Amino acid sequence: MSALEARNLVKEYRGDNYVVRVLDDLSFDADAGELVVLLGPSGSGKTTLLSCLGGMISPTSGSIRVGDVELTGLAGAERDEFRRRRVGFAFQGFNLIPSLSARENVAVPLLINRSVSRSEAYARADALLDRVGMGDRLRSKPGQLSGGQQQRVAVARGLVTDPFLLIADEPTASLDHVQAEAVIRILRELRDDGRVIVVSTHDGRLVPAADRVVHMLPGGASFQPEPVTVRYAPGETIFGQGQHADLVYVITEGSVEIYRDVGDGSEEQLAILGAGEYFGELGALMGFPRSASARARADVLVEAMGANEFRQGVERGRY
Predict the structure, then answer these.
(1) Beta bridge mates, 88
(2) Strand, helix or coil for residue 240
(3) What is the rounded distance in angstroms from the CA atom of residue 178 to the CA atom of residue 31?
(4) Is the dihedral of CA 47, 220, 311, 18 positive or negative?
(5) How confident is the model at residue 287 (pLDDT cuts 50, 70, 90)?
(6) Yes or no: is domain 222-315 CATH 2.60.120.10?
(7) Which helix (H) or strand (E) holds 52?
(8) What pLDDT, in 10s, does the model give residues 24-78?
(9) By the 8 A CB rule, do 280 and 290 touch?
(10) Which is the CATH superfamily of the domain at 4-216?
(11) What does the DSSP assignment read for 112-132?
(12) Cβ atoms 115, 193 nearer than 8 A
């Protein structure tokens, strides 16, 4: 049995007249003592997945088990208690309190919960700050620290309750390579305590340090397939709303309906496209999930290509 199991996670957000699927049937495992990297660009669902793993939001469907706790089966006070005692957080923006010293910032979760005495809270904060290389800056306030130093304080704060699961959202995003290397080294060392560390990033520097990499957009921006001609039967789905967008489609024969699933379960027709027109370009060019679905209205022949091939075709006046 794995220490962390996520199974068939789906997370949807409903707007006024549309549905956005941020997570689409995502599954992965992690063992105790492992560093897991969620790799993907902005908008790929990394922060949403972290929020689900940390018990801050619930998935639309699917299950999450952390240790011996079925997280998706908890609600209300039980979920709050799980989050306080079993999960530590290190945020991208550090979220340190400007008026407090480093040791006070780290001790805050214990002082708020009143789970230990004040003296024990500060002793634990001092020990953790020393472990992340900040033992000489205990009394420094955030404004007196560099970005890398603030991130190390944030990691120490995330560990102060001795959580089983540590979640870090883009911990190296705003750091130079020297600061990022220091934070990555600390995260690797913290695995040895037997906890699970899950980190979201679009920063490839974290990948060599990972025990597992969860690709939030399989293949990523490097996927550039050769153009291929595909035929679809009437009513056949070409792509679905919320899916990863690799390809742009140019219609050679027939017609295609573009539609969006709306909040009440119905469909909203957005466009009918015919021969010579293209669709799916925004997702493929910008790395966004599909904002709508496409299906063949009749027998359809399309040319499917990667974003680079489509871009070159536009520049040459082909589309």
Answers:
(1) 166
(2) coil
(3) 29
(4) negative
(5) low
(6) yes
(7) helix 46-53
(8) 889 999 999 999 999 887 778 899 999 999 999 999 999 999 999 999 999 899 9
(9) yes
(10) P-loop containing nucleotide triphosphate hydrolases (3.40.50.300)
(11) HHT-S-HHHHHHHHHHHHHHT
(12) no
pTM: 0.69
- Which residues belong to CATH 3.40.50.300 in the chain? 4-216
Please report where in the chains the tokens 């492992």 appear, as a residue: 34
d(CA 129, CA 151): 11
CA–CA distance, 180 with 35 (Å, rounded to integer): 16
- 176 CB neighbour count, 10 Å cutoff: 11
DSSP string, 256-289: EEEEEE-TTS-EEEEEEE-TT-EE-HHHHHHTPP
Rg (CA), the chain: 23
**Residue 217 confidence (pLDDT):** 63
Calpha distance 288→266 (Å, rounded): 23
Taking only the tens place, the pLDDT of each residue in 295-304 is 999 899 999 9
